[in-house]
Design a protein that fits this description.
One of its GO terms (molecular function) is D-alanine-2-oxoglutarate aminotransferase activity. The chain is α+β, with helices and mostly antiparallel strands. It contains eight helices and 15 strands. Helix content is 30%, strand content 28%. It starts with a strand and ends in a 10-residue tail after the last helix. Bound molecules: pyridoxal-5'-phosphate.
Amino acid sequence: MAYMFLNGKLIERTKGKIDVEDRGFQFGDGIYEVIAVYGGRPFALSDHLDRLFESAKKIYMEIPYSKKELEDGIHRLLHVDKREHCYIYIQVSRGISPRNHIIPQRISGTVIIYLLDPIREKENWKRRGIKAAITEDIRWLRCDIKTTSLLGNVLVKQKAVEKQASEAILHREQRVTEGSSSNVWIVKDGLLRTHPADQFILNGITRKQILAISKQQRIPYVEQSFTVDELLGADEVFITSTTMEVTPVVEVDEVKINEGKPGLLTKKLQWLLEREIQSQCFDDASPFSLK
Ligand SMILES: Cc1ncc(COP(=O)(O)O)c(C=O)c1O
């Protein structure tokens, strides 16, 4: 049986009910996190909870629980729903109030936590790489907030799917921002490059891990945006996210990257991230831990 937390109560997932006037439902007025679980243990949990509270602050919302209470809830859920590899979905919407755009005062947020299954194709995509489609970034100007208002992301992903691609790589004018649900990286002449963490992208937790790993390993990198032409002329391209980890991009529109094969640095970073996951979720004592 699958369980969920709804406002602090552990219930069967099918029994969860949310009011039609919940602002998450009517306005997309909410925030969320997706956290990977390996070996039954959450990866980078405190980074995800920090980002959840930062997102809340940016939309003037109070989360009705402390980080510690959310952490305890997550561990209880993992205890009853025993799964080795899955994802924790945590969403906080502003709560229930008669429909009106104005932010209501003194209402309590609706908090749900439940577990998601891994993407079926993940391992295959990680090994062989994916095809991506270049698409205009039609989203708003606060992409740094991890909000449940995801219609822009949904529409660009759909465009990619219509082109038989697995991810949309987005651009504003000539500048590449990020993917519809991932951060985008290029490698050119040994230099790793990704968009700076400003309001045009989500500052991914996996992005943060890769930057920390690169620093530790002395892999040269810059947080600097690149153009669509630079993307197409890159030696290697890859995306990062909680659900896709480090996934090579081997074709962008009709252009093959690295002759259609995952690049060497991409594979190295894939392995280094797996090692970090191993050290955080399987063997605490590892000297390689970034924590
Ligand atoms: C738009 C967007 N950018 C980047 C990411 C990657 O973030 P993370 O590594 O924290 O999963 C995501 C993840 O869902 C996303 O939706």
